[in-house]
Write a structure and sequence with these properties.
The protein is mainly beta and about 325 residues long. It has one domain: Glycosyl hydrolase domain, family 43 (Tachylectin-2, Chain A), CATH 2.115.10. It has 2 helices and 23 strands. A hairpin with a 2-residue loop joins strand 2 and strand 3. It is globular.
């Protein structure tokens, strides 16, 4: 399979505005009226590390410019002035855009180490903002008609646990909404996994969700999945099934991307899942950055004219693009 990195990588870099002068990464991307729209995760500083979502647009999926000169989603919009909003994923159902996000009510600061996970600096916040749960990452859904004005729909995870990588399917399954999750505390004998895994849940209204069931967990004999796995980009509907890109973390905190195929009618059924990853840190911009080194982290994908565009964060610092014909990646996952 021939995944091609864009020659202009990283295609989106920090700067321009104070609120995104340090990092821009892990974007959500969607095509609307033949134009690419990107919601970028950005921050103006590392101490504290408050993140927001900016909105960009492009005619070719490579050269992006800002739609507005301010962030369109902030943690303050959800009532958390000390928080950080993170890692958007976007789908459109009927005439409405739905945005998955992760929210940390009280943000840490970070001191990069260059050798893996950075040092976390915990601050003292007033009242409920100082509770231990305020440093957990909770996920939710927002909606919009125009990609600029967003309103809260619901939280999809409890307040007391770390649960991110929540990703909606782009259409209902047998009349119900379907959502991928990654609850980090759901480990142990009770949960059937000793490492953080990918779970699946359903809802009739986007507000009340069934108890999640484990969909896929890291494989002990696959080194690039050693620590944990989680969903990456919104599932893509193909003739073979739902194509799902996911990420794995190895023993040295290196992030790679893999792929699996789920049954169209019953996504709990994994049809195919190759052992090999499809993307790993190779280029300088994927190995060095202000935050965690050696990271490729896809969060957005779209298909245009038979070509799959994969947008990914690089070392939590910038945004890059890789492309591959959709047929090739489907053939790869199905072992053809």
């Amino acid at each position: 399979m021939n995944i091609k990195r864009c020659k202009k990588n990283p295609i989106v870099r920090p700067g321009i505005y104070d609120w995104r002068k340090v990092v821009t990464f892990n974007p959500a991307v969607i095509i609307e009226n033949d134009k690419f729209y990107m919601l970028e995760r950005v921050s103006g500083g590392l101490q504290p590390f408050h993140c927001y979502f900016g909105l960009m647009e492009s005619d070719n999926g490579i050269d992006f410019t800002h739609v507005v000169d301010y962030p369109v989603v902030t943690p303050e919009m959800l009532g958390f002035s000390f928080g950080s909003i993170q890692d958007p994923r976007i789908v459109k159902l009927e005439d409405t855009f739905y945005l998955n996000y992760a929210l940390r009510p009280s943000s840490y600061g970070y001191a990069p180490t260059g050798v893996g996970k950075p040092i976390e600096i915990e601050y003292t916040f007033p009242g409920d903002y100082g509770k231990a749960e305020s440093f957990m990452t909770r996920s939710g859904i927002m909606k919009s008609k125009d990609l600029i004005h967003w309103e809260q729909v619901a939280y999809t995870t409890p307040f007391e646990i770390n649960d991110r990588d929540n990703i909606l399917f782009p259409e209902k399954i047998k009349g119900r909404y379907a959502l991928l999750r990654r609850p980090e505390e759901y480990i142990g004998e009770t949960y059937g996994t000793d490492k953080a895994a990918i779970w699946l849940t359903y809802s009739d209204d986007l507000i009340h969700w069934d108890e999640p069931k484990i969909l896929a967990k890291s494989r002990d004999d696959i080194s690039w999945e050693y620590k944990k796995i989680g969903g990456s980009t919104p599932p893509i509907k193909t003739e073979e099934g739902w194509l799902v890109i996911y990420h794995g973390v190895d023993e040295d905190n290196v992030y790679r991307a893999g792929v699996m195929m789920l049954d169209l009618e019953n996504p709990m059924k994994v049809i195919a899942r190759p052992e090999a990853f499809i993307l790993e840190p190779e280029e300088y911009y994927e190995k060095f950055g202000l935050y965690i080194p050696n990271v490729v982290f896809p969060t957005g994908n779209v298909v245009k004219d038979g070509l799959l565009y994969i947008y990914y964060g690089c070392t939590d610092t910038a945004i890059s693009l890789a492309t591959v014909p959709l047929k090739e990646i489907v053939d790869f996952v199905m072992g053809r």
